[in-house]
TrEMBL record:
Organism phylogeny: Bacteria, Bacillati, Bacillota, Bacilli, Bacillales
Species: Paenibacillus algorifonticola
Name of the protein described by the UniProt record: Ligand-binding SRPBCC domain-containing protein
Length: 155
């Protein structure tokens, strides 16, 4: 079970970072390379505790669907989304926002298990863990850029 953890300092308030990270619209923009779009549950705006979203995207040339539910939330400090349906055996994705100086430390932890037992572990070692790390890092950098642009514009 790989665990991917990233930390990113953002020169923007925690509330702004928190809201951008749970924005359906920002998620779709940040994952445009996989043609990701919300097709069920909350399909625009901010997702809240207990709500679900179903995403459709193309990964590895295959159209896939994944449904996640927000299982924990304490604004503006953290929220957790967990897979309730999709390609992974399971995933638990926590998003933390720690006020630090004049900005926010965003800590993203993605704990997942691939399906198919030994074959899934082999896929993780060969390509999937790296693919997911790059995917999450691009998304987080997108959030950072949008948050910092909005923070400057608000001054």
């Amino acid at each position: 079970m790989p665990i991917i953890r990233t930390e990113l300092y953002i020169k923007a308030p925690a509330q702004l970072c928190f809201d951008l990270a749970r924005s359906i619209d920002i998620h779709a923009e940040s994952t445009s390379q996989t043609k990701e779009r919300a097709i069920g549950g909350v399909t625009q705006g901010l997702i809240e505790l207990g709500q679900t979203v179903t995403w459709e995207a193309v990964h590895f040339g295959i159209k896939q669907r994944l449904t996640a539910r927000i299982s924990a939330m304490e604004a503006p400090h953290f929220f957790v989304d967990e897979q309730v349906g999709g390609a992974f055996k399971h995933f638990y994705h926590s998003h933390e926002f720690i006020i630090s100086g004049d900005g926010t430390l965003m800590i993203d932890t993605f704990d997942y298990a691939s399906p198919l037992g030994l074959l899934g572990k082999l896929a993780d070692a060969l390509f999937l863990e790296r693919y997911m790390r790059v995917f999450l890092t691009k998304r987080n950098l997108y959030i950072k850029n949008v948050a910092e642009q909005r923070a400057v514009a608000a001054k």
